[in-house]
Each structure stands twice: as C-alpha cells, then as structure tokens.
User: Which sequence fits this backbone?
C-alpha cells in the first residue's frame, strides 16, 4: 500500500482540527434535568459508562479511563464531578471490595439521550443536502480511520508541550 501524499495529510490534519468544533459547539446543547449546563467531561463520563454497561458486569473508574484514554487519576476526578452532578452513582463493587462500581442514574440516562439527540440532529443538518451514499461512505471511512487511530500509538517524541512528570 502506498503512503498518502503529504498534501493530503495536511488537508486531513486541517479538517480534523476544524472538526473539533463538533464537540465544542455541542456543549451548549447539553443540560441536566433542571436545565443547567453540564460540563463536557461529565457528558463523556456518562457516555463511557453507558457504553461499558452494555458490555461489562460492572463499570469502574478504570473502565472510564480506558474508554476516554486518560489517566486513572483524571478519570477519577471526572467521575467525581459527574457523581456530584447526579449523573452517575457510585456503589460498592460486587467483584472487588477495593473498587467502586459506577451506574448511570435516571438523570444520567436522560442526559445521554439529550446529548446524543443534539449531536445526531446537528450531524443530520450538516449532511442534509448530501446523497445518502456519500453519508454512508463518510461513516464507513471515518470509522475505519478511528479504528486505525486507536490501534496506532503516536510516534515516540510526538508529544506536544512539556513532558509529563511521573506520578
């Protein structure tokens, strides 16, 4: 297989930077049951818990960290905020007494439904004038790209910013 031209990679990089807008803009549409704006980190925790609940006996902070590709300490703080917002419930683990199991509350499930509807509504508006075949191709190619990104670690030394300090 041949490598893409560097111009194509540049265009892809620019498009990906611009696409970050989807998550940033969707924040304005996500509110809790009382109409209060919810932090994006809590929306991500809710999504991680919802997806893990369908595959695992119980969801842990470690599962959230793995789904979000963040350190366990970062996931723990994110889960704490989602718990304080009433979106996630921490209960003692039935598997390991040293851990907590996470469950979505009714409010968390409602938030997920609203966040998903907002994202899908916006995506639908974005591609409303596209032929359905083009939307299908985009979905297929973007899924393949996301899978490849997940399976390919960044090259050594590719970190941006100062190096992380050991914990």
Assistant:
């Amino acid at each position: 297989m041949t490598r893409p031209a560097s111009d194509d990679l540049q265009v892809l990089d620019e498009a990906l930077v611009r696409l970050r807008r989807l998550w940033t803009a969707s924040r304005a549409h996500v509110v809790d049951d009382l109409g209060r704006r919810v932090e994006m980190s809590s929306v991500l925790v809710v999504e991680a818990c919802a997806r893990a609940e369908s595959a695992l006996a119980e969801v842990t902070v470690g599962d959230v960290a793995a789904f979000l590709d963040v350190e366990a300490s970062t996931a723990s703080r994110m889960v704490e905020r989602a718990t304080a917002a009433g979106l996630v419930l921490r209960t003692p683990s039935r598997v390991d007494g040293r851990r907590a199991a996470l469950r979505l509350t009714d409010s968390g499930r409602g938030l997920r439904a609203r966040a998903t509807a907002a994202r899908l509504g916006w995506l639908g508006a974005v591609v409303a004038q596209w032929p359905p075949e083009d939307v299908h191709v985009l979905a297929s190619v973007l899924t393949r790209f996301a899978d490849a990104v997940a399976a390919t670690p960044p090259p050594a030394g590719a970190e941006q910013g100062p190096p992380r300090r050991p914990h």
